[in-house]
Specification:
Length: about 100
């Protein structure tokens, strides 16, 4: 028991000298709880990373869908303009009597 007491004192002095938090001698039960908390924290971090990747993917898909929609609208507008031009040319030929059945 004296050996553990000396280690504890050394850890406390080292922590005080370097201004760091040090986990000293805990019971086995406490150490297990700390390890379990650490594992839960790592799992939460991994879930957070997965959620961040999912959010990036969703954002990218949203941007791509928006671009696709804009391109489709532009193409529809161009197609409509071409149809109107062809119809007007046809109407001019009809009024001039250039159309033959």
């Amino acid at each position: 028991m004296k050996y553990y007491h000396h280690i504890y004192i050394i850890l406390v002095i080292t922590a005080a000298l370097y201004n760091t938090k040090t986990i000293a001698m805990y019971s086995v039960e406490r150490q297990q709880k700390l390890l379990q908390a650490k594992q839960e924290l790592l799992q939460a971090k991994q879930k957070n990373e997965k959620l961040e990747k999912l959010n990036k993917t969703i954002k990218l898909l949203t941007q791509l869908t928006k671009q696709k929609h804009e391109q489709e609208q532009q193409l529809l507008k161009q197609s409509k303009q071409q149809i109107d031009n062809l119809f007007n040319a046809l109407m001019q030929k009809a009024f001039k009597g250039e159309l033959k059945c």
